[in-house]
């Protein structure tokens, strides 16, 4: 090539810049001229006129400019021939031997010399070919072609054996001197392997398919030689016509993947070039992108295109784009080529964590074990990698807010929420903390959520009796008139429970009482009422124990002790309140009294048996004597008999009183309500006025069993 340019592209990344560079190669004289044939033979008739010209094949020099062939000369010098060379009007170069003087076969039948081709390099290079001249007799007409230059066009897809064209030469000689044969006189590149010529007809045919992209023209030299040795040369130019047999090609120069999702619109993703080895419309290429919603193609330089972004990207919506670029030529039919760009979108920390609930409510039972798991918070981050790795922590409380509970901890990896120490429902029923979820991006993003911790009540508090007071101070007694009817409200037990819910629902029950049938307790109200009217037989002092029980599982309870005085007249209440020490002393005295009564009863039984035995003996004597004597020893029996006979109008009656809450039990003997025995009784036998006898009734141990309070009731004493 006369001019040799080496084009290339220079790409600079970050930011992407494009430069086109062309390097022009300067020739040096590194090739010598070369003739197509090393030896050329001419048969020239001796009758040839001076000035006759005999064409030679020009030498070729791959160098250009001044390094190409500049001169031709003959060596050794020859007086018969000279060299003539130059360029024709069409630009073709030629070289010819010029006959300078007539030949004489008889003087010299043959001659040999060299034609030297020399270039203009420094130092110059040269090439030579041997010329052999054979001088003939007669044949004085050379072949003549119909055209000096033949031109043909052929499609590159023509099959082997196709005729390109035919050359034709004529010779005015007759006979053998007029027989012409054709042959290629010069081999250029692959000419011999692509074309062949019929030596008789001059038809030039293809030996293999042509390729326009390899060579678009072929220049051939055809020599026509007659039988007498004269020849002529013509040029044949074969132009290859392009067909659309090459699809476009895409060459990627730069491609950036993955692409950050925060890339601004207009960011260059790829730079590529397109080319088509065909020519004309067959080599005209257009490019198209299938999906142009987020990306588009932008022409850069000549056949270069840029693949750029046109809108904001979001990896959370689309993490990967598959872009198909199609290049099509303008041939008929058009040929296409595709290039697939797989663009991965790299994550940027542009999404904060999101909790799966707007707030959390967790429950823990009071008196929990330390570090108990009460629940978990969970958040998700639409990012990936470190940008999605979450860390949970307790968010610090603002100074204006109340301090959060230090008893709550959260696991930084899985969000599990723990209560570090036991809680008391009665001191703290609920609390709340702020849990923060932070990703590991740079800078990190975070989200907060409120966690409400509700303490669930346990039945860990027993009821507390507020009234009547159960402290060490002396308890007051409730006064109940003897005339009270059933349903009379004596008092009300008031109790509270520090628990809540059903654990604080209280119920009241009568646990113990001096007379259980006399009292009733309201299960819900705690009111103590009379179950029946009070009778004279009821003890003056009544003691009750009321059980207060909650509704927890298991239930807890407390007791309330209270006392009631059954009085006819409230003005009789003049006795001091008993103290716990006095009650203990009274209980001890009652025990001693019971023991004494038992002992007395035994003595009384023994005495009674002895008295009855003695009485029986006396009665027998009196029956024998005919009268009855009443004395101190037999008054009981006599009174019984008199009462049975109706001699005593009234029975003896004694009033016995017990002091309420007194330090000791004492008997108060009052004078007999009935008058003493009439004088006749005394006259009948016996007893004087000073000898009045009070009847005694036997008392057994069953009659004097103390009640639950440790004292004897009035009925038991009677």
TrEMBL record:
- Keywords recorded for this protein, A-Z: Calcium, Cell adhesion, Cell membrane, Glycoprotein, Membrane, Repeat, Signal, Transmembrane, Transmembrane helix
Q: Which GO terms describe its biological process?
A: homophilic cell adhesion via plasma membrane adhesion molecules
What is this entry's stated membrane topology? Single-pass type I membrane protein
Question: Any idea what this protein is called?
Answer: PCDBD protein
The membrane-spanning stretches of this chain are: 592-613
Its localization reads: Cell membrane
By its UniProt entry, which Gene3D superfamilies does this protein fall under? Cadherins (2.60.40.60)
């Amino acid at each position: 090539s006369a001019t040799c340019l080496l084009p290339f592209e220079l790409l600079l990344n970050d930011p992407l810049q494009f430069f086109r560079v062309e390097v022009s190669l300067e020739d040096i004289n590194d090739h010598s001229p070369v003739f197509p044939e090393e030896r050329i033979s001419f048969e020239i008739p001796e009758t040839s006129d001076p000035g006759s010209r005999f064409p030679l094949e020009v030498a070729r020099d791959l160098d250009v400019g001044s390094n190409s062939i500049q001169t031709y000369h003959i060596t050794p010098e020859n007086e018969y021939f000279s060299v003539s060379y130059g360029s024709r009007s069409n630009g073709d170069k030629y070289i010819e031997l010029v006959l300078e003087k007539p030949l004489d076969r008889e003087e010299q039948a043959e001659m040999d010399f060299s034609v030297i081709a020399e270039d203009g390099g420094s130092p110059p290079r040269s090439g030579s070919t041997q010329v052999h001249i054979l001088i003939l007799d007669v044949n004085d007409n050379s072949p003549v072609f119909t055209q000096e230059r033949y031109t043909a066009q052929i499609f590159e897809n023509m099959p082997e054996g196709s005729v390109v064209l035919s050359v034709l030469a004529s010779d005015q000689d007759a006979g053998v001197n007029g027989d012409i044969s054709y042959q290629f006189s010069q081999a250029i590149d692959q000419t011999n392997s692509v074309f062949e010529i019929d030596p008789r007809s001059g038809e030039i045919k293809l030996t293999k398919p042509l390729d326009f992209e390899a060579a678009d023209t072929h220049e051939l030299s055809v020599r026509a030689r007659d039988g007498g040795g004269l020849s002529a040369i013509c040029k044949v130019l074969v132009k290859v016509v392009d067909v659309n047999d090459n699809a476009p090609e895409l060459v990627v120069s730069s491609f950036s993947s993955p692409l950050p999702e925060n890339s601004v619109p207009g960011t260059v993703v790829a730079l590529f070039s397109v080319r088509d080895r065909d020519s004309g419309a067959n080599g005209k290429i257009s490019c198209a992108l299938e999906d142009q919603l987020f990306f588009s193609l932008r022409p850069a330089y000549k056949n270069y295109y840029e693949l750029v972004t046109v809108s904001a990207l979001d990896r959370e919506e689309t993490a990967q784009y598959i872009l198909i670029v199609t290049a099509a030529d303008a041939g008929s039919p058009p040929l296409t080529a595709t290039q697939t760009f797989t663009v991965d979108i790299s994550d940027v920390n542009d999404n904060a964590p999101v909790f799966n609930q707007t707030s959390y409510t967790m429950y823990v039972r009071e008196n929990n074990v330390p570090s108990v798991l009460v629940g978990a918070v969970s958040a998700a981050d639409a990012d990936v990698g470190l940008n999605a790795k979450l860390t949970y922590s307790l968010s610090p409380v603002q100074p204006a807010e109340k301090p959060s509970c230090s008893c709550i901890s959260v696991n930084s990896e899985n969000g599990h929420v723990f209560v570090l120490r036991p809680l008391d429902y009665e001191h703290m029923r609920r609390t709340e903390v702020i849990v923060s979820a932070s990703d590991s991006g740079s800078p990190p993003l975070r989200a907060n959520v409120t966690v409400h911790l509700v303490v669930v009540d346990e039945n860990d508090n027993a009821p507390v009796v507020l009234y009547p007071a159960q402290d060490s101070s002396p308890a007051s007694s409730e006064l109940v008139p003897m005339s009270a009817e059933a349903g009379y409200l004596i008092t009300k037990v008031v109790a509270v429970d520090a628990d809540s819910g059903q654990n604080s629902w209280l119920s009241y029950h009568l646990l113990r009482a001096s007379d259980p049938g006399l009292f009733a307790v309201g299960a819900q109200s705690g009111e103590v009422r009379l179950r029946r009217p009070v009778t004279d037989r009821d003890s003056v002092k009544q003691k009750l124990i009321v059980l207060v029980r909650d509704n927890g599982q298991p239930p807890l309870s407390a007791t309330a002790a209270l006392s009631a005085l059954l009085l006819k007249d409230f003005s009789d209440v003049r006795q001091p309140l008993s103290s716990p020490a006095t009650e203990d002393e009274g209980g001890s005295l009652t025990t001693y009294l019971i023991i004494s009564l038992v002992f007395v009863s035994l003595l009384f039984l023994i005495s009674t048996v002895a008295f009855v035995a003695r009485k029986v003996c006396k009665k027998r004597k009196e029956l024998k004597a005919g009268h009855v004597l009443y004395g101190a020893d037999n008054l009981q029996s006599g009174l019984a008999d008199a009462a049975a006979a109706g001699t005593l109008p009234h029975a003896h009656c004694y009033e016995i009183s017990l002091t309420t809450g007194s330090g000791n039990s004492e008997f108060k003997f009052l004078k007999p309500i009935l008058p003493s025995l009439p004088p006749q009784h005394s006259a009948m036998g016996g007893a004087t006025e000073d000898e009045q006898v009070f009847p005694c009734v036997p008392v057994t141990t069953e009659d004097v069993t103390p009640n639950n309070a440790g004292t004897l009731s009035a009925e038991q004493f009677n």
